[in-house]
Design brief:
- By secondary structure, the protein is α+β, with helices and mostly antiparallel strands.
- The chain has helices spanning 46-66, 75-81, 85-101, 110-123, 125-178, 190-196, 244-252, 268-279, and strands spanning 2-6, 25-29, 186-189, 199-202, 213-219, 225-232, 235-243, 257-260, 264-267.
- The strands form 3 sheets. A 4-stranded antiparallel β-sheet has the order 3-5-6-7. Strands 4-9-8 form a 3-stranded antiparallel β-sheet. The protein has a two-stranded antiparallel sheet with strand order 1-2.
- The longest helix is centred in the middle third of the chain and has 54 residues, at 125-178.
- It comes from Perca fluviatilis.
- Residues 85-206 form the RasGAP protein C-terminal domain.
- InterPro entries: RasGAP_C (IPR000593).
Amino acid sequence: MTLIVTQRAFCSSGESSSSADPGSEVSLTLTNKFDIFNESEDRPDARGLEVCHDWLIQRRARQDARTPDKMKTNESLVANGNLSLEEKKRKILRCLRRLEGLGVLRAPNPEDQILQTIAKDIRQQRVHRQRRGVELQKLRQTLSSLQDKSSFHSQQVDYYRHYITSCLDHLTHSSKSTNKKKLPALSNAAARLQEKGVLVEIQDLPATQFKNVVFDIVPGPEKGTFNVKARFLGIEMEEFPLKYQDLLQLQYEGVAVMKMFDKAKINVNLLIFLLNKKFFKK
């Protein structure tokens, strides 16, 4: 772009100077510093691209400095934006090659194909939004249904827990009415419990030593609770808290064998039968 300016020279007295050319012209050329094309070639100039890229980076940095933290761009995108122009070119080429390897793009013009894909995606944004809206509505309906089922099952659990507690209260009350004295502990040798099928095995202890092990089942302070004490050669070893409700839960879940003291394997069904017979008079 060329600007022609006509200039007249004057002396200090205000008269026209004889040495100055009254019709002299000054030619000024205005150049766009972001002009990325050479005059001779219709191709981008490398220097112009670098200058434009640096200016964009600086402008983005100023914008990010004024942006609140919650609204700032993702850190990975910021890192990509801070790359040099050559690094960005290499990364773009790597991504294009990767897309070609995955079959998304095909040679010889992957750049045109990716532009067409982006344009197609922009045109179909409305369809995508509608589809996502339908899927979101289905997910909300599914979530609502699951919440209703969860609430129903929670109510069922509370009902059965209340029912079991009522049954235990009834059994305990019946037992107390028949025998007002404190219920004695149930003591059985491990060998005897094995004969009844209640005791399956004791880890690291041979069956010949079962006669030296005694299990005492003592009613606990709360309804339906027991304390199982193990004695070996008359010496009290360990104590295991037992809840009748937990046994019923194991029976409901189909668990046949449970562990006591991390060593003794007990038959759940036969233990329930033993407790019912001794403490609940069933």
